[in-house]
UniProtKB/TrEMBL annotation:
Protein name: TetR family transcriptional regulator
Keywords: DNA-binding
UniProt keyword DNA-binding, yes or no: yes
GO molecular function, one term: transcription cis-regulatory region binding
Source organism of this protein record: Tsukamurella pseudospumae
InterPro entries, per database record: Homeodomain-like_sf, HTH-type_TetR-like_transc_reg, HTH_TetR, Tet_transcr_reg_TetR-rel_C_sf, TetR_C_16
Amino acid sequence: MATGRRAGTSTAKTDILEAARELFAEVGYDRTTIRAIAARAGVDVALVSYYYGNKKGLFRGVMSMPVDPEEIFTAALDGPREGVGERLVRAALTVWEGPETTDAFRALLRGAISADEGAANTFGEFLSSVMIPTLTKHAGIDIATARVVASTMFGLAFLRYLVAAPLFREPTADELVAAYGAAIQNIVDGAAG
């Protein structure tokens, strides 16, 4: 493989994104390496870092997320154990309904439940490899409890944004924070006790 800039109009950024999308779907987030992405895209490995920074940045590109959800959830989970449920739900709603993230998040949800197995697998790998470990580490809960928390959160997202069920669509963000925050706090506290 040649190093340096390609002659003519470069498609390297798009090629890298497509290679990452394929590899995340084929072998999962954990087992995909920057080197393998560069090889599949036919580019120098340095270009991957140049365009996307790191694997998380590349995953955000693949999933079209303009923010790092792990960073947002880590910030929400750091702090006292009491109130973690409300902070987590508020952080999720910030990502789900933020002006720069709402379209990307809804596309991500649609992709996760679509017939596109690659998108679903990529989303599932990210939940399993990044989000669940973030919950276990920063909320101090075990994997089984983190799965219950994650399924509760994404159940809410599914019913509010994809199904658009009135009982889930109509509550305000503050109402959801109060109801779901308390429920998630009970799950977290139950795991500790």
